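To whoever is on call:

I kicked off a structure prediction for a single chain this morning and the downstream step that reads the tokens threw a length-mismatch warning. I double-checked the sequence; it's 181 residues and nothing unusual in it as far as I can see. Pasting both halves so you can look.
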Amino acid sequence: MALLKSGLLWRQSSVLKRWKLNWCDLWIDGSFVFYKSESRRDYETRVNLKASCVNVKSGLECAGVCPPESHPRENLLVVYLRDGSTLVLCANSEDEALAWKLTLMEAKRNPVFTYNPYDDTYQTVPIDSHNAVYIMPGTQHVWVHRESDDNFGEQIALGLLAGMAAGAAMRSLLWMPFWFC
């Protein structure tokens, strides 16, 4: 597995909002790993960017986040995750923050490649929220399962039923003032 980027980043804890200096490794499969030290003996946390990353912002785009002491706001990075949480990071320089942002976004959208030995070509399979990709090891077949909107008729029927119920309720309420005259 290839390493895309590695280095020291300040990471804000989620509970106490304290800043900690961590050694970070970003792997090509989208794993973003935080270690306690540069020796990489035991990691603190791991985030899978392909599965959980929604957006990455850096510098002045990071509203409402205070950087650690002696660091300007331009060094900030915020990684927004699917579960609604954020990963707040701070680099040592503005250029380093921008480099981390570009590398994080590249790791987030890095496609899956399949090799076709008959044509001697690589094909990309885009992974998004609507497709599931199944790759069998040892074979050259890729199955892509697409979700279909089979419940479209059910949605129309429910809309018509709700409209009829609302119309019946409104019609009976409109005649109510004449009953008391």
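Update from on-call: the warning came from a stale cache, not from the record. Cleared it. Sanity check on the structure: The CA atoms of residues 75 and 96 lie 8 Å apart.
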